[in-house]
Amino acid sequence: MIGKIVKGIAGFYYIHTPDSGVYECKARGIFRNKKIKPLIGDNVEIAILDEEEKLGNMIEILPRRNSLIRPTVANIDQAVIVFAVENPKPSFNLLDRFLIMAERQKVKPIICFNKIDTLSNEEVDAIKNIYITTGYNVMLTSAVEDSGISPLKEILLNKTTVFAGPSGVGKSSILNLIQSEELLEIGEVSRKIKRGKHTTRHASLLAFQKDSYVVDTPGFSSLLIEDMDKDELKDYFIEFDRYKDGCKFGGCNHMSEPSCAVKDAVQSGDISESRYRSYTLLYEELKDIRRW
Ligand code: GDP
Ligand code: ZN
Question: Which of 9, 28, 154, 183 has its CA 20 to 30 A from that of 127?
Fold first, then answer.
């Protein structure tokens, strides 16, 4: 049977199978020989030992698409990057850093502006508009009013998603709403886990619907980009891509180069000024790090 590791505790792995619930499994010796450590999020093949007790053996890890560190989770499809429209006021530069981290790890970002109940529609739209030109999906939610949560849930269907964003923006509140239709399996995981004495806090996956998972701890806790080459930065501002062939110089960094199509697009409003400002700030930052 094929399932997904949703939790690991002291040598036991909890494997969620879309059709038969959660099995408590041990990894067979083969993993130690192969020097491969099973991760939360791994898709695995298991052999059932006891169907009544839901016990099994993990016999193979299927190929991994990617793996995040902190939290350590494999096969992440997408990141929902949550910022509040107010309280705390959004730092767009910080949001752009989250987007860069996601792009860099090849995890598809989705922007979610929460707490829309605290501003007028016009004010919310003004914030949303900053990101329209990026092409990223922008969701608007209010966890307290339970609005915008259904479309968000739809985006999570059949995917494994990590939530990210600064603290206080409403990530836990949103996750709680998403889990309200939580399946029986989750209860089952917790019941089994309570038997163990080890309470070390590791990331785990919450399953909802058939093949949809969310990571229970926020992603991208480290937003350091100092190991990045400044010339690499432009690749992570995805909306620059359409314009870069129009720049006079090949490899144009869209800074002080003449005849730069990206800067023209900023002038005409096709690229948002806020995004371009983030780009130049980060570019200078990376340049300084190199110099030191
Ligand atoms: P987290 O740190 O990102 O997990 O944020 P929390 O979910 O703990 O929320 C932080 C605070 O913001 C709490 O007091 C929530 O009640 C509040 N909050 C969360 N979502 C909303 C919302 O949509 N609107 C308003 N007005 N407050 C919210
Ligand atoms: Zn350019």
Answer: 154
Cα separations in angstroms, 172 against 68, 159, 169, 274: 20, 19, 9, 28
Q: 3-class DSSP state for residue 149?
A: helix
CA distance linking residue 177 with residue 152, whole number of Å: 11
Q: Which amino acid is residue 255, in one-letter code?
A: M
In angstroms, the Cα distances linking 65 to 73, 75, 160, 220 are 11, 5, 12, 18
- The answer, yes or no, to whether any atom of ligand 1 lies below 6 A from the CB of 142, is yes
Query: What is the rounded CA–CA span in Å between residue 123 and residue 107?
Result: 29
Question: Which bound ligand lies closest to the C-alpha atom of 280?
Answer: 2
Task: Identify the helix (H) or strand (E) that includes residue 172.
Answer: helix 171-178
User: pLDDT-based confidence at 71, cuts 50/70/90?
Assistant: confident
- Is this structure's pTM higher than 0.85? yes
For residue 142, the CA-to-ligand 1 centroid distance in Å is 9
Which residues make Cβ contacts (< 8 Å) with residue 34, sequence separation at least 6?
none
* 70 CA distance to ligand 2 middle (Å): 34
Q: Which helix (H) or strand (E) holds 159?
A: none
Residues 41 and 205: beta-carbon distance below 8 Å: yes
Residue with tokens 């192969």: 34
Averaged pLDDT for residues 272-281? 97
Q: Residue 16: count other Cβ atoms within 10 Å of its Cβ.
A: 24
